[in-house]
């Protein structure tokens, strides 16, 4: 019987991380698509970093930021008794940061693709900015937003480097699927590795196929 | 420019603006806008007016500033006795509070909503039942029954247009701005929609500003027409005024005036001016009887007076012309009269007679265009000059047949003195 804990933990971490990615990412995507502000391109460059920066570097940054050595880490621990490093929460943060660009990019493009005249028409019909967002922008951009969410979720399930750095490899605590695969290979447990790899492969192919199929239809 | 425009607004506010809003209290749209090179001042009341100009003249920019899509640098937008924008008082209402109905060139229908949902979108604070009644009424008025559950992608261009208009009217706006709404439609559909628009305006007589670059459309729809170019108002007046008495050369150009000549004022009395022109010799212009001068039934008396108070900012046609002044003058092709040789000369057409030959004839379906050259500048009365002149003359088919015109035929034409417009050159 194989240990299903890594599968369970991966789903838990990824779903939580995707939840934050969608809400925070939607705000960022809207801000970048519909507003001009100082430092917009710098913010864009920073958010996109997880796509290009080595995962170990990202993990190192998170470790420094969230660890006891930093002001933020000490603040959380002394003030609220929250320890993040080497817990599943740290894995959520690592998954969130690395999946954010995969959500923001398509969501921003989708919002930019909504005809501004439609939003202006709604405003001129007496709607507030929030109503415009709710009834016009998001409904018209939702395919891109949904596709971005699925991509972000897939990326979160596959997060390895940063998670290993900041959450570690503690069986039954922080050992997610990718880390369990690494562990199994290191231990020479090939049959275990094969099963996990098969699950991940089927899942990843399904995700991309679904996203492609889903984004094809347009109004 | 900015300084100049601020000065302008101050001047307007001191003089005319308060007078207009208090004295007449009729206008429900007044605006003065200054944005870099864009400057217009207009006042409208319960009418269908047209904003006419070539592409790139600032028509859309004006609408964008009125509706709040673009913020003007300076100016006042005054709708139904409230300022929705006033740069001096620092008022800039958000779009949702302006109560402006805006019909976009591309309709801007919400693609994810049905026709019904689109029309109902702007109706607020009504129970479900009343919303349905109101939308049904509009569907009926706009001949859209049976389409309420279709999506915008499933209906024709004309139906989209009517849906968009219904959606705008459903929100009960104070004014209506129409941005070239018919430009993407077939000729026949356009024709029909224009008639419908006039009918709808009679039913909902709200102040409407219709933007177009199509001259024919401008004259069919506009009780009054504002002609703009390069962001500046060139002329604002009744359609007769604009058509027969362009105030600037640009207006003359945009309304398709041909037959434009240059000359110098030789003498002036209270009825006539005499212009000596190298192009066609001496021409008498009747400044009293001239067409368009109060001869138009459209545009109520009060609004006429409003124009008067606003217009000193614009170049005027009939400001006193002094002797020696260089002028530009012209006559519409359909106002040139071909004299019938078999009949005695009417007293009315004894001035400005020119003898020449027909150099070209073009059938236009609805009439004929005659190209005329004064062959030897043989002048029957009053003048004698050098160059050949070319006139374009539009005549109805019936007149064309009766006159039996053919190429190279010798004819005499009359430039009726009350049909000639004159502007300073």
Give an account of the 3D structure:
The complex is a heterodimer of chains A (219) and B (425). Chain A is mainly alpha-helical and 219 residues long. Chain A has one domain (5-30, 52-216): MetI-like fold. Chain A is 79% helix and 0% strand. Chain A contains 10 helices and no strands. Chain A has helices at 5-34, 40-52, 55-66, 71-80, 88-112, 116-124, 129-158, 161-167, 177-187, 190-216. In chain A, 41% of the residues are buried. The mean pLDDT of chain A is 91. Chain B has 425 residues and is of the alpha+beta class. Helices cover 28% and strands 29% of the residues of chain B. Chain B has 11 helices and 21 strands. Chain B has helices at 2-24, 59-67, 115-120, 128-141, 157-170, 187-203, 215-221, 239-244, 249-254, 301-310, 397-403; strands spanning 29-35, 38-44, 48-52, 74-79, 82-86, 91-92, 100-103, 175-179, 207-212, 224-229, 232-238, 260-268, 272-277, 281-286, 326-330, 336-338, 353-363, 368-373, 390-395, 410-415, 421-424. In chain B, the strands form 4 sheets. In chain B, strands 7-8-9-3-10-11 form a 6-stranded mixed beta sheet, sandwiched between helices. In chain B, strand 17 (353-363) and strand 18 (368-373) form a beta hairpin. The two termini of chain B are 24 Å apart. Classes of the chains: A mainly alpha (219), B alpha+beta (425). The A-B interface holds A 115, 117-118, 120-128, 135-136, 139-140, 219 and B 67, 69, 94-102, 104, 106, 108, 110-112, 121-122, 124, 151, 153, 167-168, 171.
């Amino acid at each position: 019987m194989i240990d299903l804990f890594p599968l369970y933990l991966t789903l838990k971490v990824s779903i939580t991380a995707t939840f934050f990615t969608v809400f925070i990412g939607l705000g960022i995507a809207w801000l970048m698509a519909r507003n001009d502000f100082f430092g917009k391109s710098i913010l864009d460059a920073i958010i996109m970093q997880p796509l290009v920066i080595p995962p170990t570097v990202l993990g190192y940054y998170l470790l420094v930021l969230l660890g006891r050595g930093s002001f933020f880490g000490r603040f959380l621990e002394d003030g609220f008794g929250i320890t993040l490093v080497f817990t599943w929460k740290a894995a959520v943060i690592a998954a969130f940061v690395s999946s954010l660009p995969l959500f923001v990019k398509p969501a921003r493009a989708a919002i930019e693709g909504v005809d501004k005249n439609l939003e202006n028409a709604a405003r001129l019909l007496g709607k507030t900015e929030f109503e415009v967002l709710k009834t016009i922008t998001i409904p018209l951009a939702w395919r891109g937003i949904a596709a971005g969410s699925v991509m972000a979720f897939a990326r979160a399930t596959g997060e390895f480097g940063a998670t290993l750095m900041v959450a570690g490899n503690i069986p039954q605590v922080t050992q997610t699927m990718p880390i369990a695969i690494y562990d199994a290979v290191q231990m020479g447990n090939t049959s275990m590795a094969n099963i996990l790899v098969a699950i991940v492969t089927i899942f990843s192919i399904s995700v991309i196929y679904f996203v492609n199929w889903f984004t094809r239809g347009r109004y | 420019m900015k300084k100049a425009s601020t000065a302008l607004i101050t001047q307007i506010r001191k003089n005319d603006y308060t007078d207009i809003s208090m004295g007449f209290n009729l206008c429900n749209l007044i605006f003065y806008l200054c944005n870099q090179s864009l400057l217009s001042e207009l006042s409208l009341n319960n009418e269908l007016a047209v904003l006419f100009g070539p592409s790139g003249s600032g028509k859309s920019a004006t609408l964008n500033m009125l509706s709040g899509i673009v913020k003007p640098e300076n100016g006042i937008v005054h709708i139904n006795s409230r300022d929705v924008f006033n740069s001096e008082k620092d008022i800039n209402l958000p779009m949702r509070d302006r109560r402006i109905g805006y019909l976009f060139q591309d309709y801007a229908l919400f693609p994810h909503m049905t026709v019904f949902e689109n029309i109902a979108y702007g109706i607020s604070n009504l129970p479900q039942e009343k919303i349905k009644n109101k939308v049904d009424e509009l569907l009926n008025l706009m001949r859209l029954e049976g389409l309420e559950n279709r999506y915008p992608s499933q209906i024709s261009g004309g139906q989209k247009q009517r849906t968009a208009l219904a959606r705008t009217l459903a929100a009960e706006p104070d004014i209506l701005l129409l941005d070239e709404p018919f430009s993407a439609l077939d000729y026949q559909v356009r024709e029909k929609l224009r008639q419908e628009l006039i009918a709808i305006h009679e039913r909902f007589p709200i102040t409407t500003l219709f933007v177009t670059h199509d001259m024919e459309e401008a004259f069919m729809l506009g009780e009054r027409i504002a002609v703009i170019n390069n962001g500046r108002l060139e002329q604002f007046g009744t359609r007769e005024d604009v058509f027969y008495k362009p105030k600037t050369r640009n207006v003359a150009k945009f309304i398709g005036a041909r037959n434009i000549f240059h000359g110098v004022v030789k003498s002036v009395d209270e009825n006539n001016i005499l212009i000596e022109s190298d192009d066609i010799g001496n021409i008498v212009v009747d400044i009293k009887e001239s067409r368009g001068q109060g001869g138009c039934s459209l545009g109520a008396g009060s609004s006429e007076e409003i124009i008067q108070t606003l217009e000193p900012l614009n170049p005027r046609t009939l400001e006193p012309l002094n002797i020696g002044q260089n002028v530009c003058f012209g006559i519409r092709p359909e106002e040139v009269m071909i004299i019938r040789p078999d009949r005695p000369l009417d007293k009315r057409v004894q001035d400005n007679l020119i003898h020449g030959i027909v150099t070209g004839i073009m059938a236009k379906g609805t009439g004929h265009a005659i190209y005329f050259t004064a062959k030897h500048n043989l002048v029957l009365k009053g003048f004698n000059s050098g160059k050949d002149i070319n006139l374009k003359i539009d005549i109805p088919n019936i007149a064309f047949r009766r006159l039996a015109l053919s190429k190279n035929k010798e004819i005499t034409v009359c430039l009726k003195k009350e049909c000639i417009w004159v502007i300073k050159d």
